[in-house]
């Protein structure tokens, strides 16, 4: 009977956060922040009581991510109307540890943050070691970078795999969604498309989730494993170029531009890989986002890009760019002889490894 009485006392039209801050020091005020899809804003604030207590009552139009800002520390809370959340931390604890209850999603995002923080510390240590050694030398060092960059990237990849597992283990929790948003959408697009498919129909009132699902469904037709959509585009010689021209062949669609610094930096790698694999079946169609044909041609000549080239000459607004959802460059798609996208946005060592694996196996 007591449980029924307690449950009936809950306000179904708002959520409650009851907090305790031990050893507050100079902290006098606590802030409640709301995180939507575009910004984080303060929605309430309250003064600490003499014994370090604080309380928030706030209406949530949908289950969402909130944050408690206490001094210089920020703590994640996922709340919905009807939640009665308890929170406790210690102002003198340099690790900013805290306990939270009354919200399963808040406990899950605390679990995610603990995992993330371990790797943040690991990555920071690698960067600090590199900077200390570079400072000792008195200048940046490529040889040092060659040692520490792989370590840093390995730590990031390990974290991403842990995040993916957390996301897939928590498909019914908003904590899983907020973890998913920390992943590199270029690198993990297939996994994020699959995740968007899995949560379609969930969290219908949360605009950030619905916007994410919409974005993933938009790129799904040009994600790995799907048939590359047909197109016709004007070649640099003025003649039409079609994807169908490459039927039965491997082709890499390479979206770039003369004005794109990262594209120009990647071009020597593409030139090198093309020289190795063009006789083994690799074709490249460079699709430029230039508007100035003269600048486009000059970049082709300067970078010695000996493959076929075409352009809509409309930057990101060309029909081919819209069809392939190009929002940043460099961007590429590797299409197999059956017309299926088998790799996407692979550059540097990743491109080298993919081509080596593809063209050294029996065809």
Summarize it:
The chain has 363 residues and is of the alpha+beta class. It is built from ten helices and 15 strands. The longest helix has 34 residues.
Provide the fold topology.
Layout: H1 2-9, E1 15-22, E2 29-35, E3 40-47, E4 53-58, E5 64-70, E6 73-79, E7 84-90, E8 98-101, H2 104-137, H3 142-169, H4 174-180, H5 189-199, H6 207-219, E9 232-234, E10 240-242, E11 250-256, H7 261-277, E12 282-288, H8 293-303, E13 308-311, H9 319-323, E14 331-335, E15 341-344, H10 348-359
Parallel strand pairs: 1-7, 11-12, 12-13
Antiparallel strand pairs: 1-4, 2-3, 2-5, 5-6, 7-8, 9-10, 11-14, 14-15
Helix pairs in contact: 2-3, 2-4, 3-4, 5-6, 7-10
Tell me about this structure.
With 363 residues, this protein is α+β, with helices and mostly antiparallel strands. It has helices spanning 2-9, 104-137, 142-169, 174-180, 189-199, 207-219, 261-277, 293-303, 319-323, 348-359; strands spanning 15-22, 29-35, 40-47, 53-58, 64-70, 73-79, 84-90, 98-101, 232-234, 240-242, 250-256, 282-288, 308-311, 331-335, 341-344. A five-stranded mixed sheet has the order 13-12-11-14-15, with helices on one face. The chain has a four-stranded mixed sheet with strand order 4-1-7-8. β5 and β6 form a beta hairpin. α3 runs antiparallel to α4. The protein is elongated and about 75 Å long.
């Amino acid at each position: 009977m007591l449980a029924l009485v307690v449950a009936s006392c809950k306000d179904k039209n708002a959520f409650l956060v009851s907090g305790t801050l031990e050893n507050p020091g100079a902290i006098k005020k606590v802030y409640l922040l709301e995180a939507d899809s575009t910004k984080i804003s303060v929605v309430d604030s309250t003064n600490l009581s003499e014994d370090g207590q604080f309380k928030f009552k706030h209406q949530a139009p949908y289950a969402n991510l909130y944050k408690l800002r206490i001094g210089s520390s920020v703590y994640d809370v996922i709340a919905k109307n009807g939640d009665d959340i308890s929170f406790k931390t210690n102002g003198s604890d340099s690790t900013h540890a805290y306990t939270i209850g009354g919200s399963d999603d808040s406990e899950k995002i605390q679990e995610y943050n603990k995992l993330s923080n371990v790797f943040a510390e690991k990555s920071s240590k690698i960067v600090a070691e590199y900077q200390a050694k570079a400072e000792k030398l008195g200048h940046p060092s490529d040889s040092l970078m060659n040692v520490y960059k792989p370590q840093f990237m390995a730590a990031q990849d390990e974290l991403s795999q842990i995040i993916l597992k957390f996301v897939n283990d928590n498909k019914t929790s908003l904590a899983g969604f907020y973890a998913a948003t920390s992943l590199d959408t270029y690198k993990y697009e297939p996994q994020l498309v699959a995740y968007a498919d899995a949560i379609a129909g969930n969290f219908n009132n949360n605009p950030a989730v619905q916007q994410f699902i919409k974005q993933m469904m938009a790129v799904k037709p040009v994600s790995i494993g799907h048939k590359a959509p047909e197109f016709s585009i004007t070649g640099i010689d003025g003649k039409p170029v079609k994807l169908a021209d490459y039927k039965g062949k491997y082709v890499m669609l390479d979206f770039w531009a003369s004005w794109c610094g990262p594209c120009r930096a990647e071009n020597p790698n593409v030139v090198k890989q093309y020289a190795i694999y063009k006789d083994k079946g690799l074709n490249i169609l460079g699709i430029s986002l230039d508007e100035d044909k003269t600048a486009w041609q000059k970049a082709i000549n300067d970078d010695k890009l000996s493959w076929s080239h075409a352009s809509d000459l409309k930057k990101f607004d060309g029909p081919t760019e819209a069809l392939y959802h190009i929002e940043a460059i460099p961007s590429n798609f590797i299409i197999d002889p059956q017309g299926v996208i088998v790799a996407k946005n692979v550059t540097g060592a990743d491109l080298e490894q993919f081509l080596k694996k593809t063209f050294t196996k029996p065809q």
